[in-house]
Amino acid sequence: MTTRPAPDARGEADAAVVLRGLRMRFGAREALRGIDARITPGRITGLVGPDAAGKTTLLRLVAGLMRPSGGDVRIFGMEASALLAASPNSIGYMPQRFGLYEDLTVRANLELHARLRGVEGEERAAVFARLLSFTSLAPFTERLAGRLSGGMKQKLGIACALLGAPRLLLLDEPGVGVDPLSRRELWEMVGELSRNGMTIIWSTAYLDEAARCPEILMLDEGRLLYAGPPQAMADRARGRVFLLSPARNERRRVLQEWMQRDGVDDVVVQGGSLRVVLSENAPETTRARLLDNGMPASPRLEDAYMSALGGMLRAPSPFGRLDAGTSRTEQTERIVARGLTKRFGSFTAADDISFNVHAGEIFGLLGPNGAGKSTTFRMLCGLSRPTAGRCAVDGVDLLRAGSAARARLGYMAQKFSLYPELTVRQNIRVVADLYGVPRQRQDERIPELCAALGLQDALRQRTEELPLGQKQRLALLCATLHEPPVLFLDEPTSGVDARTRRDFWKHILALTAAGTAVLVTTHFMEEAEYCDRLALINNGAVIRMGTPDALKEECARTTGRADPTLEEAFIACIEEQRATGEPA
């Protein structure tokens, strides 16, 4: 791929942001390698790329939080430092991690940032009223920020970034950890800001978000791969995208078959079909087989993106050989939840939740932020005792023999929960010893798992220094090192790029092929298509349960939509339940 030519003087006059030869080095690591780009004013520009591509570094340089090692940044015709000195409220910046005070209320956070921005007196009251209305946070001004849902936290972060009426708004992955309904609301908010003339840079690892932007900058390993309209990038995959429609019970086998076939850059579940992207030099026999058994499809940005990065990671998964203590066909109930209820005072976080998960099955818990998914997870992992109901893991009652049950499960938490000050190797050894994995078995499995998960070069690195994608890989390794028959994954791919998500699901599918029962939560609806069954939770209660296809078929019947996506079905179910106030 070629980078876009450097902007010339004629194009700089009407640009909001101009990057010229932008470089940033941290010791021996070069985070940005000579970026030349121009950002159009009054638009949303997507900043796209995998983990450690340089997105956050670029945003911090534009925000004036760091000085570049080389090149320069000009914003509205001025150097970033000069602009901030002359007009400090010109730039609003929302960091990737929630940067507000969780022990302060919504209003207190706004008041603090207003003082920092110099917004005082009558102006402050008017600005607060406008922002609270704009973000729909007015009913929650006295709630602690730490008790907000993920989507509401992001809205509060945007509200604080908008204090002082900036001309340029920088958003570092605002959609991470946010459910589809809240993400749609965020896009509506930001779209309105753009229509009113604000220039916005939206950093994201999610290609569906990037495809909504008029223009994108695509980074990889600090280099600019592409700059321009997303559709023009997508068109690079034209003629190489096909849909296959195997039977539901054959879909997983066919998926794994095409993942190993030469000349295939990508294969992913899309509704009831498999979406296959060929490489540019794919064998004619592979293309002919797709033409005989499938149909051509219009390209998406994600198709071209996967090809630009060299396609899927093809190393075989080591998890397919794990001894989960069962055959693939055995229908043993590995997870049982019966009437699980959790109350905190007068608040019911989970209400009468019941389901079971069999050996070799992937069961998904879906729901908006704050719906009760993580509360249910914690009860099933023995981390929280239910107020009522019972639960068992691999035949062991969690309430009567919690230690024995926890030894039979692996848990990957929503928030990274390993020791940040230890090295990767030390974290792995600590977890292995806690689970009683014999040293000989550790010596056999650790090198194999590290190689498969791309961690062999990071073993001596402090865990806190790892990029997000590698942290997630380390967490998956530690959750599976003791070869548990049950695996709990709480938003395992939140914030990671499409290529890393593919690799995660390759390993998850291998685990289930060996008999492991998997319970997973996700806000990424295309991932939910991999699940055998789903439970949709809202307000602490299960409002739908069934296969992904069954939920989409129900959505088609009730809404009249033709061939709805799982995301459309998710949003329709939540909106219906909110409208009626009762589970449908």
Number of helices: 21
Structural class: alpha/beta
Mean pLDDT: 88
Our estimate of the beta-strand percent is 15-25%
Largest sheet data: 6 strands, mixed
Rg, Cα atoms, Å: 24 Å
Shape: globular
Instruction: State the end-to-end CA separation.
Output: 50 Å
Widest sheet, order of strands: 6-7-8-3-9-10
Number of strands: 24
Helix content: 25-40%
Report on this model:
By secondary structure, this protein is an alpha/beta fold. Helices cover 36% and strands 25% of the residues. It is built from 21 helices and 24 strands. Strands 6-7-8-3-9-10 form a 6-stranded mixed beta sheet, sandwiched between helices.
Provide a short characterization of the protein structure:
This protein is an alpha/beta fold. Strand 4 (70-75) and strand 5 form a beta hairpin. The N and C termini lie far apart (50 Å).
